[in-house]
Write a structure and sequence with these properties.
By secondary structure, the protein is an alpha+beta fold. The chain folds into 2 domains: about 240 residues, BirA Bifunctional Protein, domain 2 (2-Layer Sandwich), CATH 3.30.930.10; about 90 residues, Rossmann fold. An 8-stranded mixed sheet has the order 1-5-6-11-10-9-7-8. Strands 13-12-14-15-16 form a 5-stranded mixed sheet, with helices on both faces. It has a 3-stranded antiparallel sheet with strand order 2-4-3. Strand 12, helix 13 and strand 13 form a beta-alpha-beta unit. The structure holds one RNA strand.
RNA sequence: GUGGGUGUAGCUCAAUGGUUAGAGUGUCGGGUUGUGGCCCCGAAGGUUGAGGGUUCGAGUCCCUUCACUCACCCCA
């Protein structure tokens, strides 16, 4: 019979990898809570309408990447392609804005997009998501970005760079689109097919194109940040001052464009050179209209998402310090000893010691090999002779030295010995 | 969605169209009574991704399909 395999683009995360996931999540919890953020848990399934309204009808995500289906009641549901929309929904549904002027929220979880799988791109992938709602001040932007960079530093990620940009606001962006559209129209012939199409739909996207002709056409193009209104300019300037004050290195990338419609003003991305085409490790920005667009009060917000698979693939390999190996392996010989090993092993676990033993009556040699393979610090040798003489041998697996331990009160002796380090 | 590359043991890879598809590594066992790592010996482990075709004969050639992978696209 043929075995059933996982759905394309969906991955198992096995022991050996999960340690890194836990490390990343634990670090995130610690850092974010130091900044006053609280964890929120939200469903993976939402009404389709939520994403259409927040992400934008004409974005690629909504147009061709969502897992949308009708449930048995005939309602259109969608596996979330990102988390911000759900957090906003929960924020409004539970009127969090009414109970506190500032909401600092983070969440972990899987997201779903039906794209062709590739390095660093899966159909189910995980994000760490942070949202800060309430204040619209530029210093908040700097603080959130600072927290992101601190988190990345704490998980020992290196070789990344931070880029920021401003997308302006609903008042000033349209006028720039017009300016850019007119500029690019003059160069239409040098643009690739895709970009010629983009002229009509979203000329800002041409900035993202990697085709040489388009790069050249765009190299002298006007920049959005030169056309944004005074208020947006001031906001962007304060944001940069904030980052400088917090000694956070960044570069302004006037060509950075983001794929979700709800962003306004500050946007940012953390990228790497070692991930191939999927170079964004984290990204986010300010969304001052989103809450209102979803039917809520006028509450500005800012947030970011970290791609966990991408982040983990960039982490240094050597992380032995986070995998736990046994403190003690109990090797037993004979029925009586085996029974005692069984009791002792579980009592030690009860006391917080990672103990292992073997129940299948294997040769001492096999048990020693297993102890070695598991990386146990000590092996306790418990056989018929030891039972008779009321003492067992405790072997240090690193040096190979052995010392006797009295059978009576052995539990306490072992605990004090093993917990000493 | 479009294009390229790759599918052989758990993993990394061999095998001119020609016997019974091999090696390393890993797993399990053994190398005189009850001691790990190094070394030696042995065993288990495969529908050669799947399905069709060409051929006296296919892991090898052809077609289809699936998966993986890289790039486009998009984004975390």
């Amino acid at each position: 019979m043929e075995i059933i395999k996982a759905v394309r683009g969906f991955k198992d995360i096995l022991p050996g990898e999960t340690e890194r996931w836990q490390f990343v999540e634990d670090t995130a919890r610690k850092v974010f809570s130091d900044f006053g953020f609280k964890e929120i848990k939200i469903p993976v399934l939402e009404k389709t309408e939520l994403f259409r309204r927040s992400i934008g009808e004409t974005t690629d995500i909504v147009e061709k990447e969502m897992y949308t289906f009708e449930d048995r009641g005939g309602e259109s549901l969608t596996l979330r392609p990102e988390a911000t929309a759900s957090v906003m929904r929960a924020y409004l549904e539970h009127s969090l804005h009414a109970s506190d002027a500032v909401s600092k929220l983070f969440t972990f979880g899987p997201m779903f997009r039906r794209e062709r799988p590739q390095k660093g791109r899966y159909r189910q992938f995980h994000q760490i998501n942070v949202e800060l709602l309430g204040p619209g001040d530029a210093l908040v932007d700097a603080e959130v970005i600072y927290m992101l960079m601190l988190f990345l530093e704490r998980v020992r990620l290196t070789g990344v760079s931070l880029e920021i940009n401003s997308l302006g606001c609903p008042e000033c962006r349209p006028s720039f689109r017009k300016v850019l559209g007119e500029y690019l129209a003059k160069k239409e012939k040098t643009l690739c097919e895709d970009c010629q199409r983009r002229l009509g739909t979203n000329p800002l996207r041409v900035f993202d194109c990697k085709v040489e002709g388009c790069k050249a056409a765009v190299s002298a193009a006007p920049f959005l940040i030169d056309y944004i209104c005074e208020r947006c300019k001031e906001h962007f300037r304060e944001d940069q001052e904030g980052l400088k004050a917090l000694k956070t290195a960044f570069a302004v990338n006037p060509r950075m464009v983001r794929g979700l419609d709800y962003y306004t003003k500050t946007t940012f991305e953390v990228t790497t050179k070692s991930l191939g085409a999927q170079n964004a490790v984290a990204g986010g920005g300010r969304y001052d209209r989103l809450v209102k667009d979803l039917g809520g009060p006028e509450v500005p917000g800012i947030g970011f998402a970290v791609g966990v698979e991408r982040l983990i693939s960039l982490l240094p390999e050597l992380m032995e310090d986070i995998v736990r190996s046994p403190d003690l392996y109990i090797a037993s010989l004979g029925q009586e000893a085996r029974k005692l090993a069984f009791i002792l092993c579980n009592r030690l676990r009860h006391l917080g010691i990672l103990a292992e033993t073997d129940y299948s009556n294997r040769s001492l040699k096999s048990q020693m090999k297993r102890s070695d393979k598991l990386g146990a610090r000590y092996t306790l040798l418990l056989g018929e002779n030891e039972l008779k003489e009321r003492k067992a041998f405790l072997r240090n697996m690193k040096g190979g030295s052995q010392e006797p331990v009295g059978l009576d009160d052995m539990e306490n002796q072992l605990v004090s010995l093993l917990k000493a380090r």
